[in-house]
Amino acid sequence: MAARQPVAYLYLAPALLIYGLLVIAPVIYAVWVSFFEWDGVGTSVWVGAENYVSAFTDERLLDAFTHALVLVFFYCVLPVLLGLLLATSMSRVKVRGLAFYRAVLFLPQILPLVAVGIVWQYVYEPNDGPLNGFLGFLGLDGVQRTWLGDFTWALPALGLAGTWVLFGLCMVLFIAGVQKIPPSLYDAARVDGAGPVREFLAVTLPGLRGEIVVAIVLTMILALRSFDMIAVTTKGGPGDATNVPAFEIYQRAFTYAEVGSASAVAVMLGIVVFLAAALARLLGERG
Amino acid sequence: MSTSGRLESTNRKARASALCLAGLSALALGACGPGADKSEPQAAAKKAASVAQKPTVGPEKVTLNVQDHFVGSGQEEWIKEMVTAFEAKYPQVTVRRNKRSFGDDVKTQRLALSGGKGPDVVHVANGWSGMGPLVRAGLLVNLDKYSKSWGWDKRFTPETRAGMSFTSDGKAFGSGSLYGAPTETAITGVYYNKAKLKKLGVEYPKTIQEFEDVLKKAKAAGETPIQGGDLDKWPFLHVAYMIINQFEQPKVLNDWIFKRDGGDLNTPGALEGAKTLRRWAENDYFAKGVLGKKYEDGIADFNKGDGVFFMTGSWVAGDVDKALKEDAGFAALPPKEAGGTPSTTGGYGNPFSINAKSKNIDVASAWLDFLSAPEAQQALADSGQLPAFTEGLNLEEGTLLSQVADVQETTTKAAGLTEYFDFATPKMLDTAQEGIQRLMAGEETPEALIESLQEEQAAFGA
């Protein structure tokens, strides 16, 4: 069509130009810079694929990617499961003021992640924070931790903050999705003697396939490129227990003045995110 | 379009894109790397060196752009006063301040200086954590000639000078030419609550073993022995440095930081320091939940009267003074043996440097001189900060600030001041802060910590 109407390109041109300048060009630049050793201001030295090779053998970086995978569980898997649970229960039971609950549960989504980080840092505060306070109140002193200062629990703690942010988004997506499933399907299922679980698996889940894929892709990308909360709370600590690729990129570019290396990691992260999203879409579209 | 035609055009497109790719690769492979031209750094440095010997502030109207990170309330008050005073002294000069937080300032400096319209004066982080890479890229003015003309040689101690010197190729730290002029002192030490010590029935300890005994006693009495939080990662750097200072000679540590003849941190003294820190953490002598607690919360708690000691630096003296008043004391961590060399980590705070591309280098040097001159330094003391040059200044006796100044004077005179370890390499800050957190949590042995610091230092510039 476009070939027969070249004026179509003129309509596309402004948006294409902006997209090209602000998105495509920096990506190409980053790929180019990743082949150099450069401190950001001085002269650069061509090093070929060295930045990539050393990245693959960098234990710290591999740990960072592992931490990102842990975050995928908290940002993606848990919110999707919670969202499904909430959406199906809200659609089965007549809840008064459903719109109010929907709005409130969605609120965390609109908060800037930096604000979320600051609030949750307070929640996890070992001495005055509400979490330890609540555990103490219940007599669970033994369960109290230094949370964000604990080598085992810091990452899950930050992960849970992410779950809190994202489950509302999933829930809203699925509630909207459930509403377009024809009720006749549910009726048919019930006639066949299906209980609530069977109903969920046979009617709701397949009906929500599209929404689930969208939710998974969105939240997985957020998990893999997570930066804000870590930068505002633990800065990758304690030690490097909450270090993630995005924070590592930031450190390399701005603290260590290794812009070439940072660009290489950025390219690697970009490829990982792209592959993960593509995989999710592929699995979702298949039978 | 027929099938074959479409195939042909696809082939043509493929060839075109292959050619494009080849062209780009050729471009990339050669001289066209990102960043500055290879000849640029030398040119900029030469231009700065050829500037007039005797710096004068000419009669032309000039706007001096200063980028700094004086954001503390006392600091801001002072710098604003200085701007007014400088403009009064040189009416033809307008000083325009661009203030940022410390982190933002350091991270944006490199880019700001490399562009053509950057600030004339920048507030740089010390050593390899800030100044070093800037010198290496030829972005800062070599201040040797200005130092001679303005008489900074007489004002700066040799240690001060070393801490702001790099060789002009940016390879060696601690020798070569001067690249910055400081305004404040940033010295580490122990704040102590006099009322608490009295309650425990002890005086400020004279040896580090006595200090540890007081910690034990405080813990038994239900007090927080050492207040403070390390969620921000950097605060316990200073705790660790101070402790190591008492077990290893300042000269050995400084040689290591400045990499003079290599320098080696794998000494029994440094190891004992690390073991001591681990022992104190193991025995719970630090605030509850220390690794998950923010630095500001630590200050707030200490100022509310929770905590016998608070190990940090001179930069919070104003806050502690306001809160604890006569109960506030400051001293260096006691040495290993009674009467040993008073030792601590510290020196001048972040210095000001001049942009090599600035068109007002002489005026900028006048600004640097103005800030380190006695009048400005006295004003700094009056605002509650510790100035870099305290000789001849009028510091009210018995105040917390005068106690801090005393520590600075005694440690300087006894040659017991060491630089901050994190100046040693660009990555040392991270290596040290993370290693210290691991050490405190028992995730890493004291040997491993010292080894990781030594490895980082040895690998840099190798």
Defining key terms:
heterodimer; A: 287 residues; mainly alpha; two-stranded antiparallel sheet; 1% strand; globular; B: 462 residues; four-stranded mixed sheet; 20 helices; 48% helix
In short:
The complex is a heterodimer of chains A (287) and B (462). Chain A has helices at 7-33, 50-56, 59-92, 98-106, 113-123, 130-137, 154-179, 183-191, 196-207, 209-224, 228-232, 245-255, 259-285, and strands at residues 36-37, 45-46. Chain A is mainly α and 287 residues long.
Strand and helix layout:
The complex is a heterodimer of chains A (287) and B (462).
Chain A: H1 7-33, E1 36-37, E2 45-46, H2 50-56, H3 59-92, H4 98-106, H5 113-123, H6 130-137, H7 154-179, H8 183-191, H9 196-207, H10 209-224, H11 228-232, H12 245-255, H13 259-285
Helix pairs in contact in A: 1-13, 3-7, 3-10, 4-7, 7-10, 8-9, 10-13, 12-13
Chain B: H1 3-29, H2 40-49, E1 62-68, H3 73-89, E2 93-99, H4 102-114, E3 121-123, H5 131-136, H6 144-150, H7 152-155, H8 158-163, E4 165-166, E5 177-178, E6 185-193, H9 194-200, H10 208-220, E7 226-227, H11 235-245, H12 250-257, H13 268-282, H14 295-303, E8 309-313, H15 317-324, E9 328-331, E10 344-348, E11 352-354, H16 361-372, H17 374-382, H18 400-413, E12 417-418, H19 428-441, H20 446-459
Parallel strand pairs in B: 1-2, 1-3, 7-8, 10-12
Antiparallel strand pairs in B: 3-11, 4-5, 6-8, 6-9, 6-10
Helix pairs in contact in B: 11-13, 11-19, 13-20, 19-20
Separation of termini of chain B?
A: 63 Å
Structural class by helix and strand composition of chain A: mainly alpha
Question: So what's the overall shape of chain A?
Answer: globular
The H/E string of chain A reads HEEHHHHHHHHHHHH
Structural description of this entry:
The complex is a heterodimer of chains A (287) and B (462). In chain A, 70% of the residues lie in helices and 1% in strands. Chain A is globular and about 75 Å long. By secondary structure, chain A is an all-alpha fold. Chain A has a two-stranded antiparallel sheet. In chain A, helix 1 crosses helix 13, helix 4 packs antiparallel against helix 7 (154-179) and helix 12 packs antiparallel against helix 13. The mean pLDDT of chain A is 90. By secondary structure, chain B is α/β, with parallel strands linked by helices. In chain B, the strands form 3 sheets. In chain B, strands 6, 7, 8, 9, 10 and 12 form a 6-stranded mixed beta sheet that branches. In chain B, strand 1, helix 3 and strand 2 (93-99) form a beta-alpha-beta unit. Chain B is globular, with a radius of gyration of 26 Å. The N and C termini of chain B lie far apart (63 Å). The model of chain B is unreliable at 40-52 (pLDDT under 50). The chains are: A mainly alpha (287), B alpha/beta (462).
